[in-house]
Specification:
Chain lengths: 123, 140
Protein backbone atom coordinates (compact mmCIF):
# COMPACT_ATOMS: atom_id res chain seq x y z
CA UNK A 1 0.00 0.00 0.00
CA UNK A 2 2.70 2.48 1.05
CA UNK A 3 4.79 1.26 -1.86
CA UNK A 4 1.99 2.02 -4.36
CA UNK A 5 1.42 5.49 -2.91
CA UNK A 6 5.13 6.21 -3.20
CA UNK A 7 5.16 4.93 -6.81
CA UNK A 8 2.20 7.16 -7.74
CA UNK A 9 3.82 10.18 -6.07
CA UNK A 10 7.11 9.47 -7.83
CA UNK A 11 5.47 9.10 -11.24
CA UNK A 12 3.53 12.35 -10.75
CA UNK A 13 6.60 14.28 -9.67
CA UNK A 14 8.45 12.95 -12.74
CA UNK A 15 5.51 13.80 -15.06
CA UNK A 16 5.44 17.34 -13.67
CA UNK A 17 9.18 17.72 -14.28
CA UNK A 18 8.58 16.55 -17.86
CA UNK A 19 5.89 19.20 -18.37
CA UNK A 20 8.22 21.88 -16.93
CA UNK A 21 10.87 20.79 -19.47
CA UNK A 22 8.31 20.98 -22.34
CA UNK A 23 7.33 24.48 -21.27
CA UNK A 24 11.00 25.44 -20.94
CA UNK A 25 11.54 24.38 -24.56
CA UNK A 26 8.60 26.47 -25.86
CA UNK A 27 9.77 29.44 -23.77
CA UNK A 28 13.25 29.35 -25.23
CA UNK A 29 12.55 29.46 -28.97
CA UNK A 30 11.63 33.09 -29.64
CA UNK A 31 8.59 34.34 -31.52
CA UNK A 32 6.77 32.69 -34.42
CA UNK A 33 3.52 33.52 -36.17
CA UNK A 34 1.79 30.14 -36.23
CA UNK A 35 -0.77 31.41 -38.76
CA UNK A 36 1.96 31.66 -41.41
CA UNK A 37 3.02 28.46 -43.19
CA UNK A 38 6.72 29.29 -43.33
CA UNK A 39 6.82 30.20 -39.66
CA UNK A 40 5.10 26.91 -38.79
CA UNK A 41 7.93 24.95 -40.41
CA UNK A 42 10.53 27.13 -38.66
CA UNK A 43 8.65 26.68 -35.36
CA UNK A 44 8.65 22.89 -35.77
CA UNK A 45 12.30 22.59 -36.74
CA UNK A 46 13.32 24.92 -33.91
CA UNK A 47 11.26 23.14 -31.23
CA UNK A 48 12.39 19.67 -32.37
CA UNK A 49 16.04 20.66 -31.90
CA UNK A 50 15.58 21.84 -28.29
CA UNK A 51 17.44 19.59 -25.81
CA UNK A 52 14.85 20.42 -23.13
CA UNK A 53 12.08 18.99 -25.33
CA UNK A 54 13.90 15.66 -25.73
CA UNK A 55 14.85 15.58 -22.04
CA UNK A 56 11.15 16.11 -21.32
CA UNK A 57 10.18 13.18 -23.59
CA UNK A 58 12.78 10.96 -21.86
CA UNK A 59 11.61 12.00 -18.38
CA UNK A 60 7.94 11.48 -19.37
CA UNK A 61 8.71 7.96 -20.63
CA UNK A 62 10.28 7.04 -17.28
CA UNK A 63 7.28 8.55 -15.49
CA UNK A 64 4.92 6.51 -17.69
CA UNK A 65 6.69 3.23 -16.88
CA UNK A 66 6.49 3.96 -13.13
CA UNK A 67 2.83 4.93 -13.54
CA UNK A 68 2.10 1.62 -15.31
CA UNK A 69 3.90 -0.26 -12.51
CA UNK A 70 1.73 1.57 -9.97
CA UNK A 71 -1.63 0.99 -11.66
CA UNK A 72 -0.73 -2.64 -12.42
CA UNK A 73 -0.74 -3.43 -8.70
CA UNK A 74 -2.71 -0.56 -7.18
CA UNK A 75 -6.37 0.08 -6.48
CA UNK A 76 -7.56 2.54 -9.12
CA UNK A 77 -9.94 4.22 -6.67
CA UNK A 78 -6.86 5.21 -4.68
CA UNK A 79 -4.63 6.06 -7.64
CA UNK A 80 -6.99 8.38 -9.55
CA UNK A 81 -7.80 10.89 -6.77
CA UNK A 82 -4.07 11.15 -6.17
CA UNK A 83 -3.78 12.36 -9.77
CA UNK A 84 -5.12 15.71 -8.61
CA UNK A 85 -1.89 16.33 -6.69
CA UNK A 86 0.03 17.17 -9.85
CA UNK A 87 -1.99 20.38 -10.33
CA UNK A 88 -0.66 21.91 -7.12
CA UNK A 89 2.84 20.64 -7.92
CA UNK A 90 2.67 22.33 -11.35
CA UNK A 91 1.51 25.59 -9.77
CA UNK A 92 4.50 25.83 -7.42
CA UNK A 93 7.17 24.34 -9.69
CA UNK A 94 6.10 26.52 -12.65
CA UNK A 95 6.46 29.49 -10.33
CA UNK A 96 9.92 28.41 -9.17
CA UNK A 97 11.43 27.24 -12.45
CA UNK A 98 9.50 29.16 -15.13
CA UNK A 99 8.66 32.39 -13.32
CA UNK A 100 4.92 31.90 -13.81
CA UNK A 101 3.04 34.05 -11.35
CA UNK A 102 0.73 32.64 -8.68
CA UNK A 103 -2.18 35.00 -8.12
CA UNK A 104 -5.25 34.48 -5.97
CA UNK A 105 -7.47 33.47 -8.94
CA UNK A 106 -5.02 30.81 -10.11
CA UNK A 107 -4.58 29.38 -6.60
CA UNK A 108 -8.34 29.22 -5.87
CA UNK A 109 -9.05 27.79 -9.34
CA UNK A 110 -6.37 25.11 -9.01
CA UNK A 111 -7.64 24.06 -5.56
CA UNK A 112 -11.23 23.87 -6.91
CA UNK A 113 -10.12 21.70 -9.84
CA UNK A 114 -8.30 19.37 -7.42
CA UNK A 115 -11.34 19.13 -5.15
CA UNK A 116 -13.51 18.44 -8.21
CA UNK A 117 -11.28 15.60 -9.42
CA UNK A 118 -11.32 14.00 -5.96
CA UNK A 119 -15.15 14.24 -5.86
CA UNK A 120 -15.42 12.79 -9.39
CA UNK A 121 -13.27 9.79 -8.53
CA UNK A 122 -14.57 8.85 -5.08
CA UNK A 123 -18.19 8.48 -6.19
CA UNK B 1 3.50 38.25 -29.79
CA UNK B 2 3.49 35.83 -26.87
CA UNK B 3 0.44 36.24 -24.69
CA UNK B 4 0.17 34.06 -21.63
CA UNK B 5 -3.49 34.48 -20.73
CA UNK B 6 -6.26 32.18 -21.81
CA UNK B 7 -8.23 33.09 -24.93
CA UNK B 8 -11.29 31.25 -26.24
CA UNK B 9 -9.19 29.89 -29.11
CA UNK B 10 -6.61 28.37 -26.76
CA UNK B 11 -9.36 27.04 -24.51
CA UNK B 12 -10.84 25.22 -27.54
CA UNK B 13 -7.38 23.94 -28.44
CA UNK B 14 -6.95 22.47 -24.92
CA UNK B 15 -10.37 20.79 -25.12
CA UNK B 16 -9.44 19.43 -28.58
CA UNK B 17 -6.18 18.10 -27.08
CA UNK B 18 -8.22 16.27 -24.41
CA UNK B 19 -10.60 14.80 -26.98
CA UNK B 20 -7.80 13.56 -29.26
CA UNK B 21 -6.07 12.06 -26.21
CA UNK B 22 -9.24 10.13 -25.38
CA UNK B 23 -9.45 8.84 -28.99
CA UNK B 24 -5.78 7.74 -28.83
CA UNK B 25 -6.35 5.92 -25.53
CA UNK B 26 -9.37 4.08 -26.93
CA UNK B 27 -7.44 3.09 -30.08
CA UNK B 28 -4.47 1.81 -28.05
CA UNK B 29 -6.77 -0.08 -25.69
CA UNK B 30 -8.60 -1.61 -28.70
CA UNK B 31 -5.24 -2.60 -30.20
CA UNK B 32 -4.19 -4.40 -27.01
CA UNK B 33 -7.09 -6.79 -26.51
CA UNK B 34 -6.29 -9.59 -28.95
CA UNK B 35 -3.10 -11.06 -27.46
CA UNK B 36 -4.55 -13.77 -25.23
CA UNK B 37 -2.09 -12.88 -22.47
CA UNK B 38 -3.88 -12.27 -19.18
CA UNK B 39 -1.24 -10.59 -17.09
CA UNK B 40 2.03 -9.07 -18.21
CA UNK B 41 5.14 -9.80 -16.17
CA UNK B 42 8.88 -9.96 -16.71
CA UNK B 43 8.77 -13.47 -18.20
CA UNK B 44 6.24 -12.70 -20.96
CA UNK B 45 6.71 -9.00 -21.57
CA UNK B 46 8.76 -9.63 -24.75
CA UNK B 47 6.16 -12.06 -26.12
CA UNK B 48 3.48 -9.49 -25.25
CA UNK B 49 5.33 -6.72 -27.11
CA UNK B 50 6.02 -8.91 -30.17
CA UNK B 51 2.37 -10.02 -30.40
CA UNK B 52 1.19 -6.42 -30.16
CA UNK B 53 3.67 -5.07 -32.68
CA UNK B 54 1.43 -6.25 -35.53
CA UNK B 55 -1.68 -4.54 -34.21
CA UNK B 56 -2.78 -1.76 -36.58
CA UNK B 57 -5.04 -0.14 -33.97
CA UNK B 58 -2.15 0.11 -31.51
CA UNK B 59 0.05 1.85 -34.08
CA UNK B 60 -2.80 4.13 -35.12
CA UNK B 61 -3.28 5.01 -31.44
CA UNK B 62 0.42 5.73 -30.98
CA UNK B 63 0.39 7.85 -34.17
CA UNK B 64 -2.62 9.90 -32.98
CA UNK B 65 -0.97 10.22 -29.55
CA UNK B 66 2.26 11.54 -31.11
CA UNK B 67 0.34 13.95 -33.35
CA UNK B 68 -1.51 15.25 -30.30
CA UNK B 69 1.80 15.98 -28.62
CA UNK B 70 2.32 18.78 -31.17
CA UNK B 71 -1.07 20.24 -30.26
CA UNK B 72 0.08 20.30 -26.62
CA UNK B 73 3.38 21.98 -27.58
CA UNK B 74 1.47 24.71 -29.46
CA UNK B 75 -0.75 25.19 -26.37
CA UNK B 76 2.34 25.52 -24.14
CA UNK B 77 3.83 27.98 -26.63
CA UNK B 78 0.76 30.17 -26.25
CA UNK B 79 -0.16 29.92 -22.57
CA UNK B 80 1.33 29.38 -19.09
CA UNK B 81 1.79 25.76 -18.00
CA UNK B 82 0.06 26.54 -14.68
CA UNK B 83 -3.01 27.66 -16.70
CA UNK B 84 -2.96 24.95 -19.40
CA UNK B 85 -2.82 22.09 -16.86
CA UNK B 86 -5.93 22.94 -14.78
CA UNK B 87 -7.92 23.85 -17.92
CA UNK B 88 -7.01 20.40 -19.26
CA UNK B 89 -9.00 18.89 -16.38
CA UNK B 90 -12.02 19.58 -18.59
CA UNK B 91 -11.61 15.97 -19.74
CA UNK B 92 -12.70 14.76 -16.29
CA UNK B 93 -16.21 16.16 -16.87
CA UNK B 94 -16.44 15.51 -20.59
CA UNK B 95 -17.01 11.74 -20.46
CA UNK B 96 -19.70 11.65 -17.69
CA UNK B 97 -21.59 14.61 -19.22
CA UNK B 98 -21.58 12.95 -22.68
CA UNK B 99 -22.71 9.69 -21.08
CA UNK B 100 -25.61 11.56 -19.49
CA UNK B 101 -26.60 13.44 -22.65
CA UNK B 102 -26.27 10.62 -25.19
CA UNK B 103 -26.53 7.42 -23.17
CA UNK B 104 -28.97 8.72 -20.55
CA UNK B 105 -26.73 7.58 -17.71
CA UNK B 106 -27.35 9.28 -14.39
CA UNK B 107 -24.79 11.35 -12.50
CA UNK B 108 -24.66 11.06 -8.71
CA UNK B 109 -24.98 14.22 -6.55
CA UNK B 110 -21.33 13.86 -5.43
CA UNK B 111 -20.22 13.78 -9.07
CA UNK B 112 -22.35 16.84 -9.85
CA UNK B 113 -20.55 18.61 -7.00
CA UNK B 114 -17.25 17.54 -8.58
CA UNK B 115 -18.34 18.81 -12.02
CA UNK B 116 -19.36 22.18 -10.54
CA UNK B 117 -16.01 22.44 -8.68
CA UNK B 118 -14.01 21.75 -11.87
CA UNK B 119 -16.01 24.25 -13.97
CA UNK B 120 -15.64 26.93 -11.28
CA UNK B 121 -11.93 26.10 -10.95
CA UNK B 122 -11.36 26.46 -14.72
CA UNK B 123 -13.28 29.74 -14.64
CA UNK B 124 -11.10 31.12 -11.81
CA UNK B 125 -7.87 29.99 -13.45
CA UNK B 126 -8.91 31.61 -16.74
CA UNK B 127 -9.46 34.89 -14.88
CA UNK B 128 -5.82 34.84 -13.78
CA UNK B 129 -3.94 37.87 -15.14
CA UNK B 130 -1.20 37.74 -17.73
CA UNK B 131 1.74 36.40 -15.83
CA UNK B 132 4.74 36.54 -18.13
CA UNK B 133 7.17 39.12 -16.76
CA UNK B 134 6.98 42.58 -18.40
CA UNK B 135 10.54 42.46 -19.73
CA UNK B 136 9.84 39.21 -21.56
CA UNK B 137 6.59 40.58 -22.98
CA UNK B 138 8.46 43.51 -24.52
CA UNK B 139 10.90 41.12 -26.20
CA UNK B 140 8.09 39.21 -27.81
Amino acid sequence: MVKIILLVLLSEAITVIGQILFKKSTNSIGTYDLKAGGDRIRFLSKILTQPSLWSGILVMSIGLVIWLLAIAQGDLSLVFPMGSLQYILILFLAHKFLGEKIDRMKLIGTLLVMAGIVLMSVS
Amino acid sequence: MKSSHLTLKIFCLIVLNDLIDTVAQVLMKKGLVHTGIDSVNLSNVVEFAVKNASSPFLWLGIFVFALNFFVWIVILYKVDLSIAMPVGSFCYIFVPVCAMLFLHESISPVRWAGIVCIILGIHFVSQSKKSTEPERMSNG
